[in-house]
Design a protein that fits this description.
Layout lengths: L6 E3 L4 H8 L5 E3 L14 H19 L6 E10 L2 E3 L5 H11 L3 E13 L2 E13 L4 H7 L22 E5 L2 H5 L3 H10 L5
Parallel strand pairs: 1-2, 1-3
Antiparallel strand pairs: 3-4, 3-5, 5-6, 6-7
Length: 193
């Protein structure tokens, strides 16, 4: 059932827009420009939740508080190390070499800002296992733009999908917006039936 009230999706991600459309929510989108630096001693869970919350609050400020704002953030965690978006093609190649034949975890946090002091949030954690990716394939893949704005340097729905052996959890969460958790937040706020 569609929502009557429009929300702001505080994201410039076309993947998140496509996923949110599946919930038949009335929304507009605007990127939230925030500082995404991890603070010293911050756990991956608290970091990704903080990023989603800060994006949602930036979205709420963008609308001058006139509509709820949804923020989301996704990180890849391998052996306790956060793999963010690569800053170069070489960094993307290195990330994918590290992920080859390994299981990593994708943390996708979602926050819904209803007011500056009223933010609902949730977290999805999904385990993803890659098969062996050849160095040649990795180098070719990293010549495209696909890995460059993705946490962990890959898109589950893109070329790297052919090497994913197993996903334990939410496919949409790995894409960047876990639909089940997002819908639950929207229902909790009375924005979705």
């Amino acid at each position: 059932m569609t929502s009557k009230q429009t929300i702001l999706l505080a994201s410039g991600s076309p993947r998140r827009r496509e996923l949110l459309k599946q919930l038949e929510v009335s929304f507009t989108a605007a990127a939230a420009n925030i500082d995404e630096t991890i603070t010293t001693g911050e756990t991956p869970e608290s970091y990704v939740l903080r990023m989603a919350r800060e994006k949602a609050l930036a979205g709420l400020a963008h609308t001058a508080g006139l509509m709820p704002a949804l923020g989301s953030d996704t990180i890849v965690l391998l052996d306790g190390k956060v793999l963010g978006k690569p800053d170069s093609r070489v960094a993307a190649e290195n990330m994918l070499q590290d992920l080859s034949e390994q299981t990593h975890h994708v943390y996708s946090a979602v926050a819904l800002a209803l007011g500056t002091d009223n933010v609902l949030e949730t977290l999805n954690v999904t385990a993803v296992t890659f098969g062996k990716m050849s160095i040649e394939w990795i180098k070719k893949y990293c010549q495209s733009d696909e890995p460059m704005d993705k946490a962990g340097a890959y898109a589950v729905q893109g070329g790297a999908g052919q090497y994913i052996r197993r996903i334990d959890g939410s496919y949409s969460g790995v894409m960047g917006l876990p639909l089940f958790e997002t819908a639950e937040l929207l229902r909790q706020a009375g924005l979705l039936t």
